[in-house]
Amino acid sequence: MIKKPITIQISNGLEARPIAMLVQVASQFESEIYVESGNKKVNAKSIMGMMTLGLDAGDSVTISVNGADESEAMNQIEGYLTSRG
Prior knowledge:
Layout: E1 2-7, H1 16-27, E2 32-37, E3 40-43, H2 47-51, E4 60-66, H3 70-81
């Protein structure tokens, strides 16, 4: 298992479209991927779960990844969340 704090740098935060893109990235991997913010922990492959977090640019989250392809999954998720797109 890999666990890493990440600061969201997507300019508009995680609105509907960036969340859909994040779910697509996460769904490519076999590993379990969770996003933690405050006292909430949701599956990164769940659009509805991710929408409940209401994350903005500059917010910090903890990403936890567990599975056979966890290293690649973490790299892709981190790359997406820290892009300034």
